[in-house]
Model the fold of this input.
Amino acid sequence: MNPVPYIYIGIDLGTSGVRACAINHHKEIVSTCKTPLPAPIKDGRSVTQDADLWWQATEKVLSDLLSQINAHEVQAISVNGTSGTVLACDAYGTPLAPARMYNDSFCSEQARQIKSIAPQQSAAHGNSAGLAKLLYLQMQFPQARHIIHQADWIAGKLCGHFDITDENNALKSGYDPHTGRWPDWLKQLDVNMKLLPQVVAPGTAIATVNDGLFNQLNLNPHCQIVSGTTDSIAAFIATGASQPGDAVTSLGSTLVLKVISEQAIFAPQLGIYSHKLGDYWLAGGASNTGGAVLAHYFDQKQMDQLSHSLRPERPTHLNYYPLINAGERFPINDPEMPPRLEPPAKNQREFFQGMLEGISQIELQGYNKLKQLGAAFPSQVETAGGGSNNEPWQQIRQRILGVPVRRAQISEACYGSALLARQGVINSAHQATSES
Done:
């Protein structure tokens, strides 16, 4: 008799929409779906969104996805969300107000309080960190029973538990990944510790899907809801990177580097902090260089044409440091640092290649800086983002970095969450075996 096929679902709550994918036990994608989200409401520094919109979009993508697969085969579901998006709920998970989004910077007074008490290496500093929003929400809504993150709330809607989060989402809310608990200094800020969720590792089975959902969606009643992570970490997991020295460079509007390290690295002055990732740590930094600088000087048609005439094997030696405006944060922390786009290039092709080489040199400096702080230098680099499609640039980067560089086959955050759902079932099975 053939074994029953296993299916795992990952859900990605993005800024512009919700994506979901289903994978089989061999990590192969079976189906994907997506649906748009309305833009968050911006009012000065305040950026909010009605959480019910997330749930409506999640129900839509789940319904669409389950219509394409056998819902009875789904073993687990895991959710990722934007880091630092926080909302206050009552005891039943009903939101008391719109969620404060990841890029909300309204809670400046709370951020000042945090700065005076929190350790410098904490990731909870800043107006947009989850902790500042938590302090504001507990003051505004004393009737709140849970203050949780975006991914936690959707997981709660799926299983009925609104008091659990994961180590990655909790980091910017003040959680200490070294000690594995909420730190005592939170009490000095008058944080109501009863509002804080229990913290588990990403990929931990929380509970089975709630009764109403498995009836409504025809799901397997034993389907597990598995703790998730942030959207960026889910995208990292999606690439398959899993061992110390595995690195992922995101070539989007900015240059973002992440590498798996055997030890935690915290350098707040450079915007570097570490997330717990299984037995290891995920450290990274973000430079102000990147695709936005290229788009400032070239349109997409020009870049496509110039890419065909690049000479990756012949360096320009222009030594550019491409920025749009003055100011850099990583690998150099200098808010006054000016762009360096001199000497003038002989032509547009050389100027374009010089900029690509400059961004690649910054990538090298970034990984060297992470190495100086204790991480392994990359043994290989997976590449995500729009710039990953430029083959000549990949050759330039491989020459400069001196390690294999390749385009990530998959870097969708929903796929990373599906992998976590699968891991949660495997972990549960191992635990059950060891206890029997």
Summary: The chain is about 35% helix and 25% strand. The chain has a mean pLDDT of 95. The first strand starts at residue 7 and ends at 13. The chain has two domains: 7-234+413-435, 241-407.
